[in-house]
Design goal:
The mean pLDDT is about 90. The protein has a domain of about 120 residues: Hypothetical protein af1432 (Orthogonal Bundle). The longest helix has 18 residues. It has about 190 residues and is mainly α.
């Protein structure tokens, strides 16, 4: 059993049945339904939360926290995770460990931005909304811990009521928000 290795092609098969190489993704590989489905099934904080809280739900909330001109960018700001998944923030920014991941993530986001007609630089307003939501998520969803003390006051400045959404609901809310922002899909 130790010598058994499953051969890897470098591709993943998405929800819609497309084989995609996340490291060499093309704009035509990117599908909003794959993004919504995968993010709806992906739990924030590597699953260490009081209740299931998906990346799709986070993205929908983020899209409502910015001005309309940045709402689509906010909705899609974590879309690379549909093809790459995510790693915990402390690891992602660990020198040597997260460098390759961040390079691939950036390349994926560039392709996603081209696919959806967005500027490849995240608007500061989206980054701010993402940080505000992070603070609220930490306070509402994580156990109390001294590591999180700095986030408490930040979440008090911009409170967000986080409700529990099941994965299917989060996926549909993501797709509905995408359509509301002018996007179409078959």
């Amino acid at each position: 059993m130790d010598n058994y290795v499953i051969p890897s092609t470098g591709e993943i098969v998405t929800y819609t049945g497309v084989a995609v190489d996340p490291i060499n993704i093309t704009v035509s590989d990117i599908d909003i339904e794959d993004i919504a489905h995968a993010l709806g099934n992906s739990c924030r904080f590597t699953g260490h939360v009081r209740f299931f809280y998906s990346v799709a739900q986070h993205s929908v909330l983020c899209s409502h926290f910015v001005s309309p001109e940045y709402a689509l960018w906010a909705l899609l700001h974590d879309a690379s995770e549909a093809y790459l998944s995510d790693i915990a923030r402390p690891l992602k920014y660990q020198p040597g460990f997260g460098d390759t991941y961040r390079t691939v993530e950036y390349s994926l986001m560039e392709a996603i931005c081209r696919r959806f007609g967005l500027n490849s630089d995240m608007p500061p307003e989206v980054k701010f909304a993402d940080e505000v939501l992070l603070a609220n998520e930490i306070v509402e969803l994580m156990p109390q811990h001294e590591l999180f003390e700095k986030w408490t006051s930040y979440s008090d400045d911009f409170p967000v009521d986080i409700q529990e959404w099941l994965p299917g609901y989060a996926k549909q809310a993501f797709l509905d928000r995408y359509r509301e922002l002018g996007g179409t899909y078959a």
